[in-house]
Amino acid sequence: MKEKFGFAIDRGGTFTDVYVRRPDGSSRVLKLLSEDPQNYKDAPTEAIRRVIQEEIGKELPRGEPIPTDQIGWIRMGTTVATNALLERKGERTVLLVTKGFKDLLFIGNQSRPRIFDLDIRLPDVLYDDVIEVNERVLLKRDDCQLDFDGDEDTGTTEEKVQIRQHVDVEQLGVDLLEVRKRGVKSLAVVLLHSYMYPKHEQIVGKMARKMGFENVSLSSDIMPMIKAVPRGFTACADAYLTPKIQEYIAGFSSGFAKQLEGVQVLFMQSDGGLCPVQSFFGSRAILSGPAGGVVGVSLTAFDPSTKEPVIGFDMGGTSTDVSRYAGELDHVMETTTAGITIQAPQLDINTVAAGGGSRLFFRRGLFVVGPESAGANPGPVCYRKGGYLAVTDANLVLGRILPDYFPKIFGPNENEALDYESALKAMTEVTEEANASMKKHDPKGFKKMSVTDVALGFIDVANEAMCRPIRALTQAKGYDTSHHVLACFGGAGGQHACAIAKALGMKSVYIHRYGGILSAYGLALADVVHEAQEPSSRNYESGNLSYFNERIEALSAICRAALEKQGFSADHITVEPYLHMRYERTDCALMCTAAVETSKDNKKSHGDFKSAFLDAYKREFGFVISDRNIIVDDIRVRGIGKSGLREERTIEKAKDADDAPVDTTTTCFFKEGRMDTNVYQLSALKSGHHVKGPAIIIDASSTMIIEPGCLATITDEGDVTVAIGDGSAANRIGTQVDPIQLSIFSHRFMSIAEQMGRILQRTAISTNMKERLDFSCALFGPDGGLIANAPHIPVHLGGMQATVKFQIDHLGFDNMRDGDVILCNHPKAGGSHLPDFTVITPVYYQNSKTPVFFVANRGHHADIGGLVPGSMPPHSTNLNQEGAAFISFKLVEGGSFNEKALIEQLNAPGKVPGCSGSRNLNDNISDLRAQVAANNKGINLVCELIDAYGMDVVQAYMGHIQSNAEIAVREMLKEFGRNARESAGEAKLHAVDYMDDGTPIELTVDINEETGEATFDFTGTGPEVYGSCNAPPAVTMAAVIYCLRCLVGHDIPLNQGCMAPITIHIPPGTILSAHESAAVVGGNVQTSQRLCDVILKTFSACAASQGCMNNITFGDDDMGYYETVAGGSGAGPTWNGRSGIHTHMTNTRITDPEIMEKRYPIIIRQFGLRANSGGGGKFKGGDGCVRDYEFRKNLTLSILTERRVFAPYGLNGGQKGRKGQNLLRIKAHDGRLVNLGAKTSVPVSAGDIFELRTPGGGGWGKAE
């Protein structure tokens, strides 16, 4: 059979990369603009036309169908789906969802992405409208005490279901007809529990298709996995994107004779496998573009003989994609793109908003890179389109990009070279700005920076930003970052690879000869994949092994049949079985595969999945749980048709390794200074050639910078490997503030806190810490002052500083020793409320006599004893009723874990009348060990930093970082002070608001507009209360620092410096300064919210948000559940409030309704937005939520809420938000409705319904 041309094409956002396999087995590459409407309609079509025309020597006119007799196959990766998602340019879609859940996807997990943004912005939903389908399926429960006389059925998992409401087909038909009349052609369907009972969705789908809807995406078909929210998002993405993909494919095919009939056309899916064009759907296409690069890295950079793991580093124009490969592709089942959670097998790719087009700023003493991007149009300054200063400009100014070697595709007519002069001018302007700022704030110590100093600084800051996702991808899963090869590809990556590898301690860099188009080459290497998956709900135990084997065989047969239909023979097909496994009572599931065992245990014919799960869990989380069942949520089989091409080639060997031909010599700037730099053409280099840094290696599609001290070697295949030097030639940093190093140290300090958090999440055992992430980690100076705090939970911010300072004052350095770890949670010791355990470790360095730093973390323990399960009693009146208390407890002393004394104190609350000791000692102890481990990680990272820079430099930059934050807050206060004096005649601000019991919280802020200092005076605040809403001083400090950070309005380091200009005065004996024995559990979750409302009202920043966390607990002796529920956010001067969102001092997630109903004896009857509960005005407050719980057995319900008496205020003429309500509908009394008030604990019976109505946000301005 005659060989034909093959094309592997990666259509990116800016460029389309093409790898061509000729009929004789040789290859060529091509790169062209993805968008060039003046010359061609479609880049892949144009690429194929050009190649065929040039190769056969026959003109093929544009616009005419291209003959296909010379084309054997086409493989494509495309960003069509991703771009449509990002730009919200998909197909008009209507969502069909179970009645009562109209707003389920709008609310999502109720958390906000940026905790300090008062104007809360989330990406728009993908659907235009919603149809609520009148149907309801319940899981049958053995503990259910409700009477049920309806139909029962069996789901795909063999679990029993109860049909409370069959599909109301008559009403559905009316609703669908109305939508069809409006021209909608695409539907997404997600009905509760359809992952295991798809019949109702199938009824809906059949009706819709019969009525003429062209695309119907059923969530049970797309991805039958538990969790309605991500499954619903996935179905919506599929319905929204699939028609656009089909439209693109139809347009592409129309450019060829006979619509590409007879040509094998395959598309890359998000999971790294190719699929036939007719199987390429929207939900599997999101990562189609970057997936080819990951496959390319896995098959080119990884050496099976050494098994050294590889980090894929794909740096593009707007972002950088990072992946890891260690012998098999890593998949995740859930990722978020453009605000949409996709639930499908996808390659594990981390993305950071830093690329060649990332914009460069100097802001208040800091060098900032991104996240804003110059994009392709207008692009960086040097693109000659009136663009923005960007990373590409910095590389050009430093001589690392050579315009003579770059294609002349810039300017308005796309025919000019890169513009060095304009880039230099823009960099000069930002240099002058930075120098002026530094001279103003430190005239004596000021050291003038050159333009190249500033450009180098921006590159260093960009590199540090790109190091962070690499650390996350490795260290978060228990791997040592330095024990990896950095495999670099993408147009911009080669310019940064050596510096990034050096910063991460990596010893080598690998750059493939096709590095500039590796995503396209990866498509040529990839295999065809067909997957089959079904839900399960069985324990992984001996009695179920035959069941799992049967289901794996059945799914394998489906995969084999699909691949055989595509022409693969049996010997070219392999199958990989996976089980999606988790421990009982956890949400952290791992997708596990297992090698076939050599033993003859037929029960494990597909391998020992339990061992695989335990190994993976131990590696990733640091422990296993010996007494917990392992549940299989899903069974998945990945069928692989081996079709990947392999290009075997070697290049000529060099006679002299050190005689590499130099193309030219240029001048580049590095940390070592200005250096003469040889330039080499990759095509002219031979196998074995050595290229010593500094050097530039150029090929047709990328530029590689070989930094000083590094050595590049050309391999037999023509690839480049770089041995990384130690970087010792770099200039030593002084203690004087340098804005470049200030930015880098800001990243490094924050990275320490983030990595502590990853270790804590990895090693914790409780749902609260491992899945809800209810913890915060921080780094403190030797005086206890906050340096860096990873922004996890706002109410923890600032509060931990008081805790560390208390220990310094209370214990003193004489009573601290290396190896000690201190546990505290008491309000008088800087605690917020008792469930928040703070673990503090002093850091000693090289036998120092006193601590040089402190590391600490604060985590919420689900139960520490007290009046009620969950240790959140709504009716406590004394601290000793709220659980175990610790003031300065040596959790670890001299390196020994003090477990016996710890257990005694955790059990101590049982001595209090009506109370119990901790109800879950094992989780307490395990989580505390995890908190200790997180601190140990912080200690190691701090000591590494000191080793690298010296104690004097690190401590100096801790001070500089704090000073930088102080300057930002002072500048903000000066502006507020001046504005207040102009409008009111004095720089004094005042506000008051009330707790539901009438207690006022009053604040006067007196600003010195000359110095930027302010006094926050809470005189007028009401007295301590006989209840749990007293707030310790640490909570007030946390609220103040949070609000200050919000008011600054842009990213600044959050540390002690923010509080330096602030004096806080709280009179004794108030609700904010209660006696040390006062109950405080509600103060942390409710009074903290009112404090934020009062502070923001004082500054007239925005209207009140819901002002409540809506703490709901239910349970009995056998189970307990706790959650907080979202409400409305306040409107502001230029924005509407967001509906159904957590605000201010909390940001915890809510449990998916399918998970709730599977694990607990509860029915969520409805969960949606509370219409018109946001205050009216020019800008409207966000709406609160409606959440109805029907109890399936007798339980105890506890509620701890606010804003049930005093409504969230509006500002500047805006109206109030509606107050919240807590209602109980009592079944035994014919549905009698009772208002429960704001705070209570009541027994509820099976059939009772708790109706929660959360407050709306206040409005801003008078309605026009």
Automatic annotation (TrEMBL):
GO molecular function: 5-oxoprolinase (ATP-hydrolyzing) activity
Segments forming domain Hydantoinase B/oxoprolinase: 738-1262
Domain of life: Eukaryota
The Acetophenone carboxylase-like C-terminal domain, residue ranges: 552-714
InterPro entries found in the cross-reference section: ACX-like_C, Hydant_A_N, Hydantoinase_A, Hydantoinase_B, Oxoprolinase-like
A biological process term (GO) from this entry: glutathione metabolic process
Stretches assigned to the Hydantoinase A/oxoprolinase domain: 231-531
Boundaries of every Hydantoinase/oxoprolinase N-terminal domain copy: 7-212
Annotated Gene Ontology cellular component terms: cytosol
PANTHER family: 5-OXOPROLINASE, 5-OXOPROLINASE RELATED
Family per record: Belongs to the oxoprolinase family.
Name of the protein in question: 5-oxoprolinase
Organism, as annotated: Plectus sambesii
